[in-house]
Every structure is written in structure tokens, then in C-alpha cells.
Amino acid sequence: MRNILFLGIKEFFSLKRDVILLILIVYAFTVGIYIAAEGRSIAVHNAAIAVVDEDDSPLSRAITESFYPPYFQRTEQISLADVNALLDSGRYTFVLMIPDGFEADVLKGRVPSLQVNIDATVITQAGIGAGYIQSIIFKALGDFLNTGEVLSQQPIEQIIRMKFNPNLEESWFIALMQIINHVTMLGIILTGAALIREREHGTIEHLLVMPIKPVEILLAKIWSNALVIILVVTFSIYIVVQEWLNVPVAGSVPLFLLGTSLYLFSATAMGVFMGTFARSMPQMGLLFILIILPMILLSGGATPQESMPVFVQTLMQFVPSTHYVDFAQAILYRGAGLDIVWLSFASILVIGAVYFAAALLFFRRMVTRIAHS
User: Fold this and answer.
1) What is the pLDDT of residues 252-283, one digit of tens each?
2) DSSP 3-state assignment of 235?
3) 195: containing domain
């Protein structure tokens, strides 16, 4: 234990001298999270919309007034002759056209049509905005039919309540998911870089002549780099997420940090495992790309696992990041307790033990190879 403690302290001094890596750590859990949450959004926000209202009825006016910030700008009335020119100039992204006699057809039980012209060069907003417009129009029609001259009796009333994020602010989800992704990335990079740094500087030979075992070297690298990540994650959640971005956390932050510590046991072991194969940092970077992208994309953070093929779902159960995303979302979004996430904790421990054993095996082989060279 004494050897593991002092070898871990040595890692802190090695990291202190690596200025670029320090900048990466600070950036990833501060500016990187803030920019991702505030600057990247695929949701419709402040979209320009105009209406060609040829009906000029209470229903058409109700539909027109249903578009308001923050999703859309206030609607403006334009003439039919100006539609193409205003869309081509980029003045509006959406133009809703309401034909003459629309309200009368609705009241008579007919199925009239509305036309929405879209500037599809704004690809993301064009696709998502069409769905927004459809939902808003249906809502306006439902309100009109239930409170106007025609009453419709609906046997079932659907009421949706969002507990964690009532307004479905995309930045709330992105900020927390960025922390989860950065923990995975930094957990692998730090330990892999620490091992490669030893080889490039020739200090691994110094360790081999000391009365220490490979398992002590490995454990020292794991606990020291994991502690660094836990500290910056704690700062990021309490200061960057909750204070700067004003994103509330539904569950227990200490419980999340406990689970993150268990997960880092697996992620840092994976970093050492990769470091035994890579001979330099450029090679480490290439291996990192091959491993980290599938882990992030297939762990359930970007896309629900239920939408993936069954064999992918089965395969990802042996990857620790899948269980990390599962319990992190349960704690941070839904306020889950240990009685709910304990199975994910146990799965990460088991997988981490396997990864650690593999990392130790290949690390010993690397040490033996260096000793005989």
C-alpha cells in the first residue's frame, strides 16, 4: 500500500509537467461542457415563420397566434405573391398557407388541407420544425373544437408531465451527457498517456529496478488518474452545470460520484490495456478513436439501446460504459437511489475486474519484454 501511495503521488508530478494534458482536462470539464450545452442545439429555436391567411377566420387567427417564442418568432402576415421571393431570400424558414373556407370545412366535418412551404436549406430546423408546426396546428384545432361551436367528446385525455426537464430544454440533457462522455474519454486517455509517457521518457526502466511489482505500478496509475477525474467532475457538476448553466440535478450527486469512481476502475484499466499496445501517443490516438467512438455512440447516451440490433445490445452489455450511462441517467435525470442502480454498480465492478486482469497480464508481458531488451 505504501508503494502504491507514493507511486500514485509520482503520477501527480508527472501530470503536472504535462501542460497540454492539463489544459485538456480543464477545458473538457468547463468550457467544453458550457459550449456544448449552450452552443449546440438541434431543436427549433427562434425560427422565422410567416402565414398566408386567406380564410381570416377565428380558427385561422387562433392557429396563427399559436406560434410564439422560444420555438418560433412572432408570425407575420404576407401575401401569396411574396411567398417564393421571401423563402428564396432566407427571410422566412416556414410559410404556412391557410386556404379560404378552412374553418367552414372543419366545422362541417370535412378534412381540409394546409400547406407549409419550408426553406429546406436549413436542414435541421426544416425537418424538426415541420413536426413542431404539425403539433401546434393539431393543438389549436383541438382547443377550437372543444371550446368553440362544435364540442367533441373524447373518451381518453392524455396528459404528459416531464419531471426532470419540464420544458424539454436540450441544454440540460447535453450538459450532463457531456460530463458522462468526458469521463469515459479522459479515463482512458490519462492512464494510457501516463504509461506511454513512462516509456518515452525511459522512466519505466527506473521502476523495473525498484522493489515493486507490476500490479503496484498499475494500481498507482489507476487511483491517481481516477482521483484527478473525480475532482474535476465534482467541480463540473456543482459549478459549471448547476451554477453557470442553471441545470438542476434530480438525484444524489455523491451517489453519482461513487458510481463514477467504480466506472473509472474499468475505464482506467482499459487505458492501461491500450497503452501496452501503443508505442507512441499518435498510435494511442488512433486506438482511442477506434474504441471511444463505438463506446459513446452505442452505450445508450446518443441513441436508446432499444433501437439497436439485438446482437449490438448483447455485445454492449460487456462494455462498462453501457452500465455507466444507464445508472448516470437514472440518478441525474430520474433521482434513482442505490436500491435501483446497485445492479449497474455490480456489473461495472465485475467487468472492471476482468479488464483489470487483462491489463495486468499485458502490462506484465510488456515489462518482461522491456527487461529482456
Assistant:
1) 999 999 999 999 999 998 888 888 888 788 88
2) helix
3) 2-40+166-371
